[in-house]
């Protein structure tokens, strides 16, 4: 553990009168974290209609908001949160998150001291960009406790870190374990690529030059040789997944900037889902649909999982199903799938109908 604090101290509020930290991060569906710029009236006007159609709405105050609009974005988020029924507030169909400005920016202090008193009861999660180590989370942890106490909040606001610097990746485990508020991590492929001096110029996604090529056939180096593009983000996402699982929090793919390329976006999101991520960012309503599809297990997968659960009886030993060996370990994988399906069915009537229609012989 990075800190020499007693484990018990993590569950004491960091300010007199602040809410008690949570012992477990609720597994709330968050397949798409839909970004909007609260200073953009066109985007802001769409927010009320999106409640109930997307798992998370995130008011973005950081990058992509012009310096001249920072204040308007912050105030716009307060207005939207106060005026929109059913948004955020630890229950309900759509969570409300925000991405504050970076901790070394001139705006972040005002972000926190404005948002927490005004809409702290509605803000479920605060996303902190460019987190480098546990010290960044400790700073946010304490100041949030002070502001929550002052505002008389009864529930703590959770914290989500974007992994977008080399130092952040190197410190990923200590970041995840830095506070009971830690809800999850997102990959920040654009900033991370720049910080690492990768030679990409895109926001997320692959690169045609990053590939492996088949060996020459019969020594003919000029002959036909298949090449396969590789996933630039595999290493980082895999590290995030392990760090998050170890700390009982949730990993997310971040942004995919090529809005028109819905096929590659779906592939990238699916890689993240299969590796263990629970959601991704959406930068356009089109991507909400992609994330909802990808991060909800298919009826075929849930059917198979339920068949294994039924066949495994008390959960011990091994059985043969369709010619394949199933045992305690494959049962556990199937239970992950069934639990996710149950959680999603509880908030998504279409999925509920699809999953409820599954029939499995006991
Ligand atoms: C997201 O913030 C990124 O830098 O990719
Ligand atoms: Mg970034």
Short description:
The protein has 362 residues and is of the alpha/beta class. It folds into two domains: 288 residues, Phosphoenolpyruvate-binding domains (TIM Barrel, Alpha-Beta Barrel); 58 residues, no CATH class.
If you had to describe this structure to a student in words, what would you say it looks like?
The protein folds into two domains: 7-294, Alpha-Beta Barrel (TIM Barrel), CATH 3.20.20; 299-356, no CATH class. The protein is built from 13 helices and twelve strands. It has helices at 41-50, 70-83, 108-119, 134-151, 166-170, 172-176, 189-196, 234-247, 262-275, 285-294, 299-311, 328-345, 349-356, and strands at residues 32-36, 56-60, 95-99, 125-128, 158-163, 182-187, 211-213, 227-229, 250-252, 280-282, 319-321, 324-326. An eight-stranded parallel sheet has the order 9-6-5-4-3-2-1-10. A two-stranded antiparallel ribbon has the order 7-8. A two-stranded antiparallel ribbon has the order 11-12. Helix 3 runs parallel beside helix 4 (134-151). The longest helix is centred in the middle third of the chain and has 18 residues, at 134-151. The N and C termini lie far apart (45 Å). The model has no long low-confidence stretch (mean pLDDT 95). Magnesium ion (MG) binds at residues 63, 129, 164, 188, 190-191.
Write the layout of secondary structure elements.
Layout: E1 32-36, H1 41-50, E2 56-60, H2 70-83, E3 95-99, H3 108-119, E4 125-128, H4 134-151, E5 158-163, H5 166-170, H6 172-176, E6 182-187, H7 189-196, E7 211-213, E8 227-229, H8 234-247, E9 250-252, H9 262-275, E10 280-282, H10 285-294, H11 299-311, E11 319-321, E12 324-326, H12 328-345, H13 349-356
Parallel strand pairs: 1-2, 1-10, 2-3, 3-4, 4-5, 5-6, 6-9
Antiparallel strand pairs: 7-8, 11-12
Helix pairs in contact: 2-3, 3-4, 9-10, 11-12, 12-13
The structure holds glyoxylic acid and magnesium ion.
Glyoxylic acid binds next to helix 7.
């Amino acid at each position: 553990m990075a800190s020499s604090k007693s484990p018990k101290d993590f569950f004491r509020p960091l300010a007199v009168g602040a809410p008690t930290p949570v012992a477990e991060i609720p597994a709330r569906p968050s397949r798409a974290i839909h970004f909007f710029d609260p200073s953009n009236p066109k985007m802001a006007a769409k927010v009320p209609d999106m409640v109930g159609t997307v798992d998370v709405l995130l008011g973005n105050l950081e990058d992509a908001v012009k310096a001249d609009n920072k204040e308007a974005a912050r105030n716009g988020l307060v207005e939207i949160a106060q005026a929109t029924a059913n948004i955020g507030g630890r229950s309900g169909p759509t969570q409300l998150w925000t991405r504050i400005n970076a901790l070394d920016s001139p705006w972040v202090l005002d972000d926190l001291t404005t948002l927490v008193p005004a809409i702290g009861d509605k803000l479920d999660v605060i996303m902190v960009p460019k987190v480098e180590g546990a010290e960044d989370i400790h700073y946010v942890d304490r100041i949030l406790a002070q502001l929550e106490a002052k505002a008389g909040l009864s529930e703590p606001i959770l914290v989500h870190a974007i992994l977008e610097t080399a130092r952040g990746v190197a410190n990923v485990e200590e970041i995840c374990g830095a506070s009971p508020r830690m809800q999850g991590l997102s990959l920040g492929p654009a900033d991370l690529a720049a910080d690492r001096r990768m030679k990409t110029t895109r926001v997320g996604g692959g690169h045609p030059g990053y590939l492996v090529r088949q060996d020459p056939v019969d020594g003919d180096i000029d002959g036909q040789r298949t090449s396969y593009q590789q996933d630039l983000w595999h290493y980082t996402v895999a590290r995030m997944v392990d760090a998050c699982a170890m700390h009982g929090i949730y990993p997310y793919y971040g942004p995919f900037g090529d809005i028109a390329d819905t096929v590659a976006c779906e592939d990238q999101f699916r890689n993240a889902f299969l590796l263990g991520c629970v959601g991704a960012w959406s930068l356009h309503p089109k991507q909400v649909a992609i994330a909802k599809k990808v991060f909800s297990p298919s009826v075929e997968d849930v059917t198979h999982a339920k068949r294994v659960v039924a066949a495994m009886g008390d959960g011990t030993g091994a059985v043969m199903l369709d010619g394949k060996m199933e045992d305690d370990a494959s049962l556990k994988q199937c239970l992950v799938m069934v639990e996710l399906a149950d959680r999603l069915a509880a908030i998504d009537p279409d999925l509920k109908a699809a999953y409820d229609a599954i029939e499995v012989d006991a």
